[in-house]
Design goal:
heterodimer, A: mainly alpha, two-stranded antiparallel ribbon, about 5% strand, B: alpha/beta, 11 helices, 10 strands
C-alpha cells in the first residue's frame, strides 16, 4: 500500500511532464489554430479579459453573455471541455476561495429572488468567481491554441519589453526542468527508501535545497546554450501557414461581437 | 582562415585556487584537437573560456587575431559552435527543426536560407528523418546528433564539444565519430573517452597540474601508459588489448 503511494507520487510527476509535452505536440499539430497569427490570438484574449473585468462588481448576469467566447472557441477549435475542467480543477479551487468572505462583510440586501434575499456580498462574490473563471478559461484556450514561443512572439509584437518576455519564457522552461529534476530526485529517494510513505521530514531541507540548486544549474546551462546561439530576446514564427486574412477576420469578428454585447447587453432586458 | 590562440591564460573560480595558471596554445583551421585529463583537470572550463561563458583572469584568447572581450563576444561567438555535455541543456525548443533553426534565426538569416541551413545540418548529422520529431521523443544518440546539428546550422568556423561520446551506445558512438570526422573546420573535443579521441583527433592536449602537460600527436601520448597514469588516465582499450601495437 505504502509502496503504491510512493509509486503514485512519481507517477504524478511523470504524468505532469508527459502532459506538458502532449499539450505542446497538440498545439503544433492543430492546423486551424496554426493558421492564425499569434498576435491575433493574443489580442483577442487580452481584449476579452478586458471586457470581462470591465463588468460591474454586482452584476453577475452581465457576465453571462461573455460565455459565448469560450464556448465558441472550444467548439470551433476542438478544445475538450472535460479535459479543460480536469486540468483546471486546482485553479478552480483557488478561484472559489476568492471573495468567499464577501457575503459576511457586506450584508446589504439588494435583490429578492424567488423568496431568497441576495445580499451585495453574495452578488460580488458570484461576480468575482465568474470573472476569474472566464479569464482563466480564456487563458487556457490561448495556451491550448498557441505554443509558449508563439505567445512570446505575440508579446514582442505588442512591444512588451524583451526582458519581461524572456523571463516569461524562461519560467516556462524552468517549470519543465523543475518537474524533470523533481521526478529524478523522487525516484532516487524512493528507490533507497522503499515502503516509506512520502518524504521523511528530516530530509525535506536537503532535498529541496538540492532540487533548487540542480534546477538552477540546469536552467543556467539552457540559458547559456540560448545565448551561445545568438539569442537576444527575440522570438520567431515557425509555422509558414499563417493566414493574414483569417487573422484579421478573427480579430475583427470577435472585436465586433464584444463591442455589440457591451453596447447592447441583451441579457439585462 | 580561422585561428585560435590562447596566450598565458590564467583562470580561477575562487582566487586562491587556480584552475589554469599559465596556459598557451594555438589551433589552426581544419585541425581537430582532443583535450584530455582527469576529472577536475579543467577540460570543460577551458572550452567555456574559449566561448566566453567564463572570462579569463589573465592572459588573452584570440580568434582570428581578435581578442575575446565582452565587446567582441558576440562577433566571436558567431564563429563558434559549442555542444554541451548534456544534450538536455542544448535542446530546449519543441521540435528538432525549431531547435536547429534557433541560431540562424537569431542571427537574422532570412527564412529561405534558414530552411536551407537546417536541411544541410540535418543531412550532415544524418538525422533528416527526425526533422519534425519532438525533442522529448528522441533517444540519447539522436539527441546528441540533434545537438550537434543545432550548432552546424550556423556553419561555425570552430566547433567545441564537451564529452561528445558520453552515454552513447557503440553504434551511435561510431556514427558520431563518422559525423565528426566529416565535419569541416576547426574542432576541439574534450573527452574522457580516449578511444574516441584516438578515432577523431590528430593532436591532443593533456591537462594536469593547472596547465598543459602534453601537446602533440594523439597516437604518441595514447600509447604512453606511464605518462597517462601519472595524470589519472589509462591506456585506451584499443591499445590495451591490441596485438602487435607497441605500447610503453
Amino acid at each position: 500500500m505504502k509502496r503504491n503511494m510512493a509509486k503514485h507520487s512519481t507517477g504524478k510527476m511523470d504524468h505532469a511532464i508527459r502532459e506538458i509535452h502532449h499539450v505542446d505536440r497538440e498545439k503544433g499539430s492543430c492546423s486551424r489554430s496554426n493558421e492564425l497569427h499569434p498576435l491575433a490570438k493574443l489580442s483577442v484574449t487580452i481584449l476579452y479579459m478586458l471586457f470581462v473585468v470591465s463588468v460591474e462588481n454586482y452584476h453577475p448576469v452581465g457576465l453571462l453573455y461573455l460565455l459565448v467566447y469560450p464556448l465558441a472557441m472550444m467548439i470551433l477549435y476542438d478544445i475538450s471541455f472535460i479535459r479543460c475542467m480536469k486540468r483546471l480543477k486546482v485553479v478552480f479551487f483557488f478561484v472559489f476561495c476568492m471573495g468567499i468572505a464577501n457575503p459576511i462583510f457586506n450584508r446589504i440586501p439588494v435583490l429578492n429572488f424567488w423568496g431568497i434575499t441576495l445580499t451585495a456580498g453574495m452578488l460580488s462574490m458570484i461576480t468575482l468567481w465568474m470573472k476569474a473563471l472566464l479569464t482563466v478559461l480564456a487563458g487556457y484556450i490561448l495556451m491550448e491554441m498557441t505554443t509558449m514561443d508563439q505567445i512570446c512572439y505575440g508579446l514582442r509584437c505588442l512591444h512588451v519589453p524583451a526582458g519581461f518576455v524572456v523571463l516569461l519564457s524562461l519560467i516556462y522552461r524552468y517549470l519543465i526542468l523543475f518537474l524533470k529534476e523533481t521526478d529524478r530526485m523522487m525516484k532516487a529517494y524512493q528507490l533507497r527508501a522503499p515502503g516509506q510513505k512520502g518524504v521523511h521530514f528530516r530530509v525535506w531541507g536537503s532535498l529541496l535545497g538540492n532540487l533548487l540548486l540542480r534546477t538552477m544549474d540546469q536552467g543556467q546551462r539552457v540559458y547559456e546554450s540560448m545565448i551561445l546561439r545568438g539569442f537576444r530576446g527575440e522570438y520567431y514564427l515557425h509555422t509558414g501557414r499563417v493566414s493574414k486574412r483569417d487573422s484579421y477576420l478573427f480579430v475583427g469578428i470577435w472585436m465586433g461581437i464584444f463591442v455589440i454585447l457591451k453596447l447592447f447587453p441583451i441579457v439585462y432586458r | 582562415m580561422a585561428r585560435l590562440e590562447l596566450q598565458n591564460i590564467g583562470f580561477a573560480y575562487e582566487t586562491a585556487h587556480w584552475v589554469f595558471e599559465d596556459v598557451s596554445f594555438s589551433v589552426e583551421a581544419n585541425e581537430t584537437v582532443g583535450i584530455i585529463g582527469a576529472n577536475g583537470a579543467g577540460k570543460s572550463t577551458l572550452l567555456k573560456l574559449i566561448v566566453g561563458l567564463e572570462m579569463v583572469n589573465r592572459g588573452t584568447i584570440r580568434m582570428d587575431g581578435e581578442p575575446l572581450t565582452t565587446k567582441t563576444l558576440a562577433s566571436i561567438r558567431r564563429k563558434e559552435g559549442y555542444v554541451f555535455q548534456d544534450a538536455e541543456s542544448q535542446l530546449f525548443m519543441g521540435t528538432v527543426y525549431e531547435d536547429v533553426a534557433f541560431a540562424p534565426e537569431n542571427y537574422g538569416v532570412d527564412r529561405e536560407s534558414v530552411e536551407e541551413q537546417v536541411k544541410k545540418a540535418l543531412e550532415l548529422t544524418g538525422i533528416s528523418h527526425l526533422r519534425d520529431r519532438h525533442i522529448y521523443k528522441l533517444s540519447g544518440g539522436e539527441k546528441k546528433l540533434a545537438s550537434i546539428a543545432t550548432i552546424l546550422s550556423t556553419e561555425p568556423e570552430m566547433i567545441l564539444m564537451d564529452e561528445p561520446s558520453v552515454a552513447l551506445d557503440p553504434c551511435n558512438r561510431d556514427k558520431l565519430i563518422r559525423v565528426i570526422n566529416g565535419l569541416p573546420g576547426m574542432k576541439l573535443l574534450a573527452s574522457h573517452d580516449l578511444d574516441f579521441i584516438y578515432d577523431t583527433c590528430q593532436r591532443t592536449l593533456v591537462l594536469g597540474k593547472g596547465g598543459i602537460v602534453y601537446d602533440g600527436p594523439t597516437e604518441q601520448v595514447l600509447k604512453d601508459r606511464a605518462f597517462l597514469e601519472q595524470y589519472g588516465l589509462r591506456l585506451p582499450l584499443s591499445f590495451r588489448f591490441a596485438v602487435g601495437r607497441d605500447c610503453k
